[in-house]
Amino acid sequence: PSTQAASAVVSQSPVVIAPQPSVMKTVTSLSSVPIACGDTATVGQLVSKPQQAVGDEEGINLEEIREFAKNFKIRRLSLGLTQTQVGQALTATEGPAYSQSAICRFEKLDITPKSAQKLKPVLERWLAEAELWNQKGQQNLMEFVGGEPSKKRKRRTSFTPQAIEVLNTYFEKNALPTGQEITEIAKELNYDREVVRVWFCNRRQTLKNTSKINVFQVQQ
Amino acid sequence: PSTQAASAVVSQSPVVIAPQPSVMKTVTSLSSVPIACGDTATVGQLVSKPQQAVGDEEGINLEEIREFAKNFKIRRLSLGLTQTQVGQALTATEGPAYSQSAICRFEKLDITPKSAQKLKPVLERWLAEAELWNQKGQQNLMEFVGGEPSKKRKRRTSFTPQAIEVLNTYFEKNALPTGQEITEIAKELNYDREVVRVWFCNRRQTLKNTSKINVFQVQQ
DNA sequence: AGCATAAATAATAA
DNA sequence: TTATTATTTATGCT
Predict the structure, then answer these.
(1) C1'-nearest nucleotide to the CA of B91
(2) Closest Cα partner for A1 from B218, B202, B22?
(3) Is there a contact between A210 and B179 if contact means CB atoms under 8 Å apart?
(4) What is the pLDDT of residues A60-81, one digit of tens each?
(5) Distance of C1' in C14 from CA in A161, Å
(6) Does A184 touch chain B (CB under 8 A)?
(7) Cβ–Cβ below 8 Å for B201 and A205
(8) What does the pLDDT read at residue A42?
C-alpha cells in the first residue's frame, strides 16, 4: 500500500524562504516588495502582506487561493481523508505524481503562486468527484481513493508481562537497538518486528515525558 | 503547558466491551439484543444495529448523538483544535476533568449512551462558544481555549553528521536506551534530551518500515 | 519536486 | 483516565 515512488527527478528547486512571523513583522515595516528581490515568495508570505488589499500577483488571485486552501483542508477532513491518501489518489488518476508533502505544502500555502495556481484546479476537480462518490456511500469513496477498500487501523498490541520483562531488560542494556537486534528480539518473543520496534520507540518517549515531569516535581 | 491534571476521581467504570466489526456481523445474525446480556454497549455499537430504525435507547436518541459526534469533529477541526486542547479547555471551564481520550472516545462513539448523553450538551455549549470567540478573531479563540496564545511547532532539528554517527553507534548497541542513558547521550552531544529521545523513536520506526519492505523484496 | 524523518496527534490496552 | 502504541502532518534538505 505505502510503496513510495522512488523517482528521483532532478529539477530546479524553487528556493523558498521560510521566514518566521516575527521576522515578517520586522521586514514589512520597510514596506513594498518585502520578500526576496525579484524572486519567488510563497503564497502564504504574499497574502500576509498587511498594507494594500492583496489582490493579484502576476494575474493570480492570491486571496482566492488562500480561501480555497483553507476550504480544501476542511473538506478533506470531512471526507476523513489524509494528505497521503489524496496525494496517492491524485498520482493514480492525474498525470504527474503528488506527494503527501505537496498536499501539505498547498494547505499551508508554502508554495509559489505559480505552483498553487496550477495545482488548485486539479485539487478542486478531484475533491468534488470524491465528494460525489462519498454521497453514494463511504465504500465508493474508498474505492475511488484507491487501494485498500477499508484499511483498518492496526490492532493495538498487547504484550504479555513476560514479554515486557524481557523487553525492559533489553531496553536497559540498550535503548536503541539496531535493526538486526530488533529482528532477533522480535523472533525470540514471537512478536511482529514492527511491533517490537514501536515498543522501543514509545518506551523512549515515555521515559522522556517522565523525566520532564520529574524536572517540575509534579510527580505524585 | 501540557501539565496533566492529576485528579484521580474514582467513578464506576462503564465497562465497555469493544468488539470488532467482524465479530459484530457474526453476532447480529442471531438477531435481537446482539451485544452483551443486559449490560452497557457503546453508542457506536447500538447505532450500527442493522434491522429496525435505531431510535431511542432508554429514552436517548442515539441517531442524534451519532450525528452530533460526526459534526463535532468537523467543527473542531474547522477551528483547528486538537482533542487535547478541547479536553484541557473543558477541564478548565467545566467541573470535571476531560482527557484527550475522552474526547476521542466521544468522537468515535466508543462510550455508553448514558455517558454520551451527559457529555453531549457540555460539548455542544463549549463548541458554540468557541466558535463565537473564533469569529472575533483567532487570537480570541486561542485565549478562550487557554494557555499558549499561539504555540508554534518546534523547529525541526538538524543533526550534524558527527552526531548522527554517534547516535547510530548507541542505537546499534541498544535501540531502547533508558531515560538516564538518553540524558547522558543528550549531554554528550549537547542536544536537547527530548530531541534525542524522539530521534530514537523515529529511528525505530524507520527500521521497522525498512524491514517490512525487505520482506516483500520491493527494495531497489 | 519530494524523500527522509522530526514532531505532533489520535486511538487504545490496561 | 492514564500510559502507551500507531498514524498523520510538517519541514530540512538536496
Answers:
(1) D1
(2) B218
(3) yes
(4) 788 889 999 999 999 999 998 9
(5) 12
(6) no
(7) yes
(8) 83
